[in-house]
Amino acid sequence: xxxxxxxxxxxxEALNKGxxxxxxxxxxxxxxxxxxxENAVNSIFAAKGRPAFNPLIVHVSGIDAVGEIxxxxxxxxxxxxxxxxxxxxxxVLDKKAGVPMATTGGLTTVAVRVPDHRLTLSLLEKLDYPLxxxxxxxxxxxxxxxxxxxxxxxxxxFPYILDGGxxxxxxxxxxxxxxxxxxxxxxxxxxxxxAISSVTGRLMVNYPEKKEKNPCAPGMLSRHYATxxxxxxxxDPLALATYLAPKKAGILFFRDSVQKNVCAVSRxxxxxxxxxxxxxxxxxxxxELDRQPVDLIIAExxxxxxxxxxxxxRLRRAAKK
Length: 321
Ligand code: TXA
Ligand code: MG
Prior knowledge:
Its main location: cytoplasm. The protein is built from 9 helices and 16 strands. The protein is an alpha/beta fold. The longest helix has 17 residues, at 275-291. The model is unreliable at 210-214 (pLDDT under 50). It binds threonylcarbamoyladenylate and magnesium ion (MG). Residues 25, 27-28, 30, 54-57, 88, 90, 92, 104, 107, 109-111, 115, 133-135, 172-173, 175, 186-187, 216-220 line the site of threonylcarbamoyladenylate. The site of threonylcarbamoyladenylate (TXA) has 30 residues, from β6, β7 and β11.
């Protein structure tokens, strides 16, 4: 099993040897390797059981490092980077030749971001290469938001998990691509679409469902973020649980409600109804409910505004058959 460590020097040594290390970010834990090494990148795909067409996000230490992997950067991308980095924003840019095709799943674009986590930033500053890091879960499963989630998922695939505590934000980065210099939303994430469009003025949405045959963010079509127990999404979870009895349901409520008290197994994402607190708790509570003696999980739909849209997106994908 990978060892949980807090020493970035150990992480650096392993990465320099071509090994993988799980790293903390403000969104979710990533499974990191040298983004410029085809071998390291291939080990990431193998460890996760990830299809080769699903490209990885490349993590860099700062905006100045982007020029080493990307070119022809649109002005809007620079503006977004200056506004949100370090932070949960991934930009899809034209790649430079030095980035292996294995990293980008065969695409000529590369996804890049500067994570907002003290330990990982200090690690990146000391490395001579950027880190490719998808979420540190087996392909399709619920993303990890603490070191123990990662440890529970993997056996001997890599030596270390760098422990940076619980992820602050708790859902993945927002992914933005560009079409003739115009910002396009590829994946809802920890920065609400409204915050992006307040900077770009205009934000086109090219969401995978709208483009089934040629998704902009490959890999977003398949089932994702899944618990081992079946998950259902409902506006009235308690009514659904009653209907499905004697099957035993664990309920994921959005906010405090009287219903909560009549349900044996439940978690409440945010008692006060805060969307950012709900994001922070989302994956941790899904991991917890999945381990309870229940037959299925029923999640309450969140209001579709701001980060609520991101949470519903993740729940819908986790519920996909
Ligand atoms: O918050 C995050 O983004 C986390 C942390 C670890 O940084 N990472 C993460 O990686 O969520 P992953 O592999 O679970 O999701 C990456 C997404 C995939 O949906 C992939 O299709 C998309 O990024 N992506 C990567 N490169 C792309 C590219 N060149 N064009 C379009 N989409 C891309
Ligand atoms: Mg993922």
